[in-house]
Every structure is written in structure tokens, then in C-alpha cells.
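Researcher: Here's my situation. A collaborator sent me these components and asked whether they could plausibly form a single complex. I don't have experimental data yet, so a predicted model of the whole assembly would be a useful starting point for our discussion.
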Amino acid sequence: MKFSPLVDELIQALKCLPGVGPKSAQRMAFQLLERDRKAGQSLGHALSKAMSDVGHCQSCRTFTEEVHCPICASHKRGQSQVICVVETPADVLAIEAGGHFSGRYFVLLGHLSPLDGIGPDELGLALLEEHLASGEVSELILATNPTVEGDATAHFIADMAKSHQVIVSRIAHGVPVGGELEYVDSTTLALSFNGRLPL
Amino acid sequence: MKFSPLVDELIQALKCLPGVGPKSAQRMAFQLLERDRKAGQSLGHALSKAMSDVGHCQSCRTFTEEVHCPICASHKRGQSQVICVVETPADVLAIEAGGHFSGRYFVLLGHLSPLDGIGPDELGLALLEEHLASGEVSELILATNPTVEGDATAHFIADMAKSHQVIVSRIAHGVPVGGELEYVDSTTLALSFNGRLPL
């Protein structure tokens, strides 16, 4: 037995969300129908609007419905000479939550992964090279994830930047604050020794 | 820092779903924006349509966008003399998945809970009494949840049905198939002894 067509369609559609299977989708649909139709309406509206209107910032490639994202559009930060390269818009949020970086970003929206067909073109590296060639960039901080693909992407970009008189740095990898040495993996520990700083 | 208004609005709206917090909402929004805008569009469309068009079956109170749900509208089952009373539309689905019940349903959409202001009126018991008074019902099977509230609701409905010459029964509680006696709680075990059947 199925529910009525509209309810069924809603349950099927909810399964497109990551981590949501048939049972969760059913629970979500019933919760909205029983308790909170207004929230369901606004979610439907927000989804439709975001899916059709949100594009990418023409300067840093993060999500925005404007031509430039708030950071690139700001007078103070949009002209910054320091660019931080990250893999996803969520990384921008994580760095902004700390509030210690005041430059601008460049969002790759992925990492180099030749087997999946993701090369320099898909990561918008031509646009990044334009930024570098403009002479308005003094430092490039590579904050891609500390994974094999993230490291490969960082090295590729570092090679690309060499011809442009730009300082290229990679964020430090080491023991996280609050972590216990005993439980840190050996690769991280090795990196923390290699990256040691004079006190 | 916030995302652009539309992305932010989408993340906030996704938090209305049960079990979805700020991090999950962000992940869902980015997944849809990055990978599957078409699915996001259909979800938005399905939500808007379901929230505005889905009402309740006038006969059994389950969710449907028609006047009667598929079961109540069917020639074979809609006129059945056996009514199974359940708490939620999801319970209907669970029973239908078994395929062993061929009567019709009555969905309470909750259980008696005076402290939350849920009384007989909220559960549509007047409509159920109409069904009973019509003389077209021979048996009422009470399949509310085996909780304090579900039991109380079942007893309330049983009292109500007494004046209508209707057989009232409650589904059996006992050791579930595949369960191990060792791990079954004592109340369930006691109920399984009380409800024992001759072999």
C-alpha cells in the first residue's frame, strides 16, 4: 500500500537529502504535515528560490545569488592581497568562525581527482591564475584538506603560482589543540615534528 | 560570518526537519546546491504542493489530498464492517505492509493526553462514534501503541463503543517473533502469559 500520491511524492523527494532514508523521509513528511505546515511551506519556498537563484561568486566561486559574495564585495576585504584557497564553501564558514583571517578566499568546489574527471578546469584554476597574474595578490595560503587529494591539489596550485612572484604557503598540520599526544596518529605526529617552530 | 541571504535562509529552513541540526542543515544545503539542484527543485515543489493540498480523509482521518483516502474509497474495503483504530498514518502503513488486515482504518492522529490539551475532540472520536452509530460496523480493533497513553486511549474508545453493539478487541501484546525471552522486559512477558492461547 502507498500513501496518497502527494504524500508519497513528498516522501520520495525527501530521500534526496544526504543521510535520509525511507523511514526518516516518512517521519519528516508526517512531522511537517501534522505539526508544522508553515515551516514546510517556507522550506519549499526557500528550496525553490535557492536552487534557481544561487550561483557562484565571479571572484571567489563560493555560493551567492549576487555577482560577488559579501566578502569579495566588501571594500576592506575584497581588495585584500592575501587569498586563502579552500575546497568548499563550508570551509570558508569554518575559517570565518575563528575570525583570525581577514583576507579573501578562493573556493575550488572540490579537489583534483582525475579518475572522477575533476581537473584544473573544474576547479576554476584559470580564474585563480587571472587573480595571480593581475599583480594584486601577494600571498596565497593553501588550506585544502590534509588528504591525499587535498595535498595533491595544493602542490599543483603551488607549482602554478611559482611563476607569479607570489608567496605560497600551506596551513600547518600537527597536533590539534586539546588533543592528547597518546591518541594522535603517527603521520600527524611526524608532521607536527617537521613543522616545529622556535619558541 | 553568514552565507549569502538565500543560502542562509535555506539552511535555517532545513532545520525545521526532525533530527536536523545546524551542521546537518548546512551539509544538506551544500549537497543540493553542489550536486543535485534538480532534486532540490522537485523537493521544493513537492513540499509546497503537499503542505497546501494534503488534508484528511473525511472517513478515516488519514492524510490524503482527495475527499477519501484510497482505502476508504475502494469498493472492497471502504464498506468493511471491521475498523482498526491506530494513532498515526505511519501505523496504517506498517499494518498494510503485512497485508493480513483487509478492513478499514480510523486514524486518531495522536492519543489522549489531557496535559497537552488533547482530548476526545482532537482525536475525532465524534466521527468514530458516527461510524459506530451507523450500524455498519461489527468489530473495532484497537491498535493504539502499547504505552500508558495508548492504553488509556484504547480503554476510552472501548467504553464509548460499548453502547453500540460492537465487538471491541485490542491487539495482542507479547513476545515479538524472533525475540529472545531472556531479553524481553517483564511487563511484556507478563502480558504474554496473560494473553496465552490454547494450542
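Model: Some features of this prediction you could bring to your collaborator: The beta strands of chain A are 55-56, 63-64, 82-86, 104-107, 139-142, 167-170. Chain A touches chain B through 59 residues (CB under 8 Å).
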